[in-house]
Amino acid sequence: xxxxxxxxxxxxxxxxxxxxxxxxxxxxxxxxxxxxxxxxxxxxxxxxxxxxxxxxxxxxxxxxxxxxxxxxxxxxxxxxxxxxxxxxxxxxxxxxxxxxxxxxxxxxxxxxxxxxxxxxxxxxxxxxxxxxxxxxxxxxxxxxxxxxxxxxxxxxxxxxxxxxxxxxxxxxxxxxxxxxxxxxxxxxxxxxxxxxxxxxxxxxxxxxxxxxxxxxxxxxxxxxxxxxxxxxxxxxxxxxxxxxxxxxxxxxxxxxxxxxxxxxxxxxxxxxxxxxxxxxxxxxxxxxxxx
Length: 291
Description:
This protein is 75% helix and 0% strand. It contains 11 helices and no strands. The protein has helices at residues 2-50, 61-82, 86-100, 110-135, 139-147, 152-182, 194-205, 208-238, 244-248, 250-253, 272-284. The radius of gyration is 31 Å and the shape is flat.
């Protein structure tokens, strides 16, 4: 119990001295995670769509060539950025640009480099998620869209993508939570996020474990809030569970029950058509085709 009391006292001392740095680090972490996840989702959406362009053997040779070339480029991009650690990607991109240009080209800011690194890393994972979401949709829906005259772009934007995005929504949330945590590796290029604040506080106070405790609680709080918000968004995308609105829709209820102002409906026993048909059946009997 004495050690927990000492831990609490050290945390209070750390927060009084470095609380502003921790809060600035949290803000930078959240901004980086939100922006990079949004850009990465756009990259993954484009790559996923390009990777699912239909290509048949009877298509023109130029189309088949370009489709296979696009798929090869997307595949290389996905395999490279999924198969290497983000920390090495940050080092290669941030320090590689001035290295290969003999220091003639520098990054305008560490923010730009960090956003680029996290975005393209997220895009590599999202590309496969989007591809899986698209191919998970029943092919009959694509065939039905083509049957009513839709082209490939219209089918994707109006039929396939809305359903695919709902299917991959959990993966989008998963990548966002991963980016909140993995942004900590950006300290390698001197990006001052939450973990960098921890390193600075430890260097100033030598209270490593109390600072690590603050970091643990901070990351856990951010990820729990993100999980709650993402589940709320998923429920909103699902819509209501009740089908009362569909049943109360006048167009739906009136389907096949058009009522003539003078004769009623063909199925109304008080209509002229119904009464005439009954009289004919009673007089002549039903035909074989009516039975």
